[in-house]
Specification:
Blueprint: H1 12-28, H2 40-52, E1 60-64, H3 70-77, E2 83-88, H4 91-100, E3 105-108, E4 120-126, H5 136-150, E5 151-160, H6 176-186, E6 190-193, E7 200-206
Parallel strand pairs: 1-2, 1-4, 2-3, 4-5
Antiparallel strand pairs: 5-7, 6-7
């Protein structure tokens, strides 16, 4: 999407998410509060988990719900050279991401709109499903399917878990076993991790069997 066009939202729920994060960026600026994270530490843990199950070096990496491109900063810090691009519903988030990474491709809008996203080797999404409202499960599946259609090698995403000992009111917590069953309809090569935070899980999906 060119910078001259405003964001398009194919779904009202995504427009709601965009407005929510636009307000957080306006209030908190470039901080973890603007990302709705409890701490930078929990964000780092999720990034470590994502990186542990994927080959990212020399790959085209699409970050869905990229926020202010903290994953890009993390990859740079670790010396993982890749062709990174990011999409996010919030135009304020994308504006901040462009300030931090001026030579990186970013797009603002609804990832499920036909013009959003581009072919990649690896597509990732970090905790983007929790504010999708009553249709969260349906939209989550649509997003996973779109990521899968764009990726040549792998998809990975994290989500709040229904197995969590406590849940926050108004936030969607996926059932890991239900999501895993859905992902197995797309590929037999899947991996579930629920061993790093009590309220969170990550699923990896691969186009082909991983080397032993």
């Amino acid at each position: 999407m060119s910078e001259g066009k405003g964001p398009r939202y194919a779904h009202a729920e995504v427009a709601h998410v965009a407005a929510h994060f636009d307000r957080l960026v306006e209030r908190y600026g470039n901080t973890h509060q603007a990302l709705d994270y409890g701490s930078r530490k929990s964000q780092r843990i999720r990034f470590d988990v994502l990186a542990s199950g994927l080959t990212l070096a020399d790959r085209r990496v699409l970050d869905v719900g990229c926020g202010m491109a903290d994953l890009k900063s993390y990859l740079d810090e670790r010396g993982i050279a890749c062709t990174y691009s990011g999409v996010d519903a919030s135009s304020r988030m994308i504006a901040e991401a462009r300030k931090r990474h001026a030579h990186t491709e970013f797009s603002a809008g609804d990832f499920l709109a036909p013009e959003m996203g581009a072919p990649c080797d690896v597509a990732v999404a970090n905790g983007i499903f929790y504010l999708l409202g009553e249709r969260a499960e349906e939209l989550q599946r649509e997003i996973i399917e779109r990521m899968w259609s764009l990726a040549d090698e792998a998809v990975a995403f994290s989500s709040l878990s229904s197995w969590a000992p406590e849940r926050s009111e108004g936030e969607y917590h996926s059932d890991p076993s239900v999501v895993l069953r859905f992902c197995r309809k797309l590929t037999p090569w899947v991996r579930l991790r629920h061993d790093y935070l009590p309220h969170d899980f990550t699923i990896f999906m691969y186009k082909r069997a991983m080397d032993a």
